[in-house]
Amino acid sequence: NHNRPPTDGYRQDHLANQDLENLDPAKLTPLTPEVISRQATINIGTIGHVAHGKSTVVKAISGVQTVRFKNELERNITIKLGYANAKIYRCENPEAGAGNYRSFGSAKADNFAQDGKTWQLQRHVSFVDCPGHDILMATMLNGAAVMDAALLLVAGNEPCPQPQTSEHLAAVEIMRLGNIIILQNKV
To answer: Which residues form the signal peptide (predicted)?
Structure first.
């Protein structure tokens, strides 16, 4: 019965409907709408040298400030792993052309209209924001253990490579992380 209230006690009408009576787990994939509506299915680590903008990029994409602890805020550095989810949408309007994508926080509806455009959920990703200080390399390695991909940030206003840029890249290569995107920041 589709009118039966959900077992968790509240409705989330903005998310994909999960009809548990007719759901076939064998057909679920990381890109199935019923899955990505509620759960991030790709873990992306932000890695690189200290102060190259890792946390800032995560906030720009997800809207979440990953630097949360008092000592991090006071010193303006990432010390512990930070986490943030974001939903990635594609514009469904034909006149928008290819490549018209936007990101929003995880609470956003799967499909919505905004500014005369219709947006549809494509991916639900989770960011693991890693510290860039050399003394926090062990923390970065803990974050790398759960990464499906990495976003290596490199500041364009400094010589390259900086020490932790090289160390972080070597670490994800040793861990055989095959999906790495290099983002030049601060240009």
So the answer is: none
Q: Is residue 6 part of a domain?
A: no
CA distances to 38, 122, 137, 141 from 134, rounded to whole Å, are 35, 36, 6, 12
98 domain-assigned: yes
* Inside any domain, residue 2: no
Quick one: tokens of 42? 């790709």
CA distance 70 to 77: 10
Chain CA centroid to CA 137, Å: 21
Summarize pLDDT for 128-163 with one digit per residue, the tens: 999 888 777 888 888 888 899 999 999 999 999 999
- Distance between CA 96 and CA 99 in Å, rounded? 8
Domain residues for the domain of 74 are 36-185
Tally of domains in the chain: 1
Give 10-56 pLDDT, tens digit per residue.
Answer: 567 777 877 778 888 888 888 888 888 888 889 999 999 998 999 99
Does residue 116 form part of some domain? yes
CB atoms within 10 A of CB 80: 18
CA 32 to chain centroid, in Å, comes to 18
- What is the CATH number for 70? 3.40.50.300
Cα separation of 127 and 44, whole Å? 5
